[in-house]
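Supplementary Note 3. Input sequence used for the single-chain structure prediction.
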Amino acid sequence: MQAIVLLGLALLLLKTLFSTAHYQPYTSLPPDAPDHGFLAISYFGVDRKGTATLIGVKELERHIKALRDSGYVTVSQQEVLSYYRDGKPLPEKALLLLFEDGRRDTAIFSQKIMEKHNVIATMFSYGDKFKKEDTKFLTSEDIKSMVDSTFWETGTNGYRLAFINVFDRYGYYLGELNSLEFSMMAPYLNRKYDHYLMDYLRDEQGVPKESHEEMKARIDRDYRLMESIYREELGKLPAFYALMHSNTGQFGTNEKASQVNAEHIYRLFAMNLNREGSSHNDRSNSLYDLTRMQPQAHWSVNHLLMRIWEDTGQDMAFVQGDKGQAALWSNLAGVAEFGRDSIILTSLPAGTGILRLKDSEEFGDISLSLQLEGNALGSQAVLLRSDKGLRNYLRIALEDKRLVVTQVEEGKQQELFSQSLDRIAGVPPVSVPEDKKQAEIGRLRMALKYAKGISDAADTARQLAEAGQRQAASVAEGAEEYSPNLDLNEGQKKELAITLQGERLSVAVDGIAAVADLPVRCAASGALVLESRSSFQKYSQRNLTDDVYDGVFRNIMITGQEGGVVFDGRPERAERILAALAGGWHGLIDWFVKVL
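The predicted structure, written as discrete structure tokens, is reproduced below.
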């Protein structure tokens, strides 16, 4: 079986890198065509099934198809340059499609999608990866073959991905970290760090450790290395650059570093991605200050389209899914995609998504079971005994990793219950001293792994042993409880069982009673409503803000006061068996891929 999997992967790689299809550009436009600008959309990478950061191949195809169905056509780097330099028009819905980090799996899993939907994309890469022979990343020969296929162009993320002026979340100064060191420390960081080209190297007090000349020489060297290795490996430096990461209105977080970057950017490149968050570009912004949207791996198709609609106001081909299931619900806000056993309810930007179950206005005493699978950062809720104007109802929500019960009367909210999902599950609380100890251990493990010599390793090993033996006060001993910041990509899957009898509410989460016979005030009957809502946050450097949220509701079943089923959104038994078999097969393939 291993041999079969290996042969299949080899054939897939060969078909990917040696395709006979060719990209067909869009039909040229008259010179007086109206100007609508263009979108830039950039994916971190592609995985067979998807991970927390890499989009799955099936979901990527759904994204690309939805963009095509919405009228978008991809454009090349040269067409964007001609748009800015020569005033040549672009299609009404022009898309500059990008993939970052130069990952081999991205090329393998996206090639056939690009051929099928006739799209062209830019593959960015880091220069230092060419010499490291890391199988996760494309070689220069791989990239040449991709460009020859006509579906790919090249770009660069720079010479290296490295971090400076790094502090952990407790203010411990870590200094400079390469990408591997940063990955080890990522669980213990907030956002107090910078990228390699953005600033001076600074000490723990924020004072520069290098002079202006030294800072300039360090940044100059990175551009020389980048220029040299691309010319050596690819024959030329790509014309398209993505500065990591600015988002500051200049080319760095520090003005002096920005000036040094600017000299090289204007000298070496034809255009530069300088911002992230918004997808829309036009002639009002510079070729060297382009902005791109970076879809996250968990985004539904409608999530992507909703964000583009927010940026552009253009019509989108939102996906409805199963029409039979959709006919059972009234869509009051946002958009919803219906599967046989699932509903993905996408909120409006900085707003809500709202679905009302038709013919549920007389629901009184009911029991409800369902799975909620939207991300932890955000809110997905069930509203019971709701009136038509949504001014009176009982709201049961998973909200930023908490179970929250709210009573709403004439629009006025009263929180009746709120508890951490971890506490409900019996996960013991972690104190600030305990978490600080783990951050120290994580730092020492990183230092030990990348120690520069035997003496350094021995000293670090001693400190690590001492840190492991050191006692840290617990919450039970009176220490402050540690409350982590939720990550934008943190997944969540919870099963809820809700019972409302008269004016008493009970809620179980994953079979654990969280609320028992809670007194509530609400009407004797009313409609059942589903709601999704974002909890977006803005960060100072990487603009990872998202004001759209996907509530994912699965396997909804409702029984009435007589015990009869009044709504059943679960799949038939045969469908469940087929889904289980398919899941097992994919799991087996994943196991072989990981083991091999």
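Residues 72 and 379 are 31 Å apart (CA to CA). The first helix runs from residue 2 to 17.
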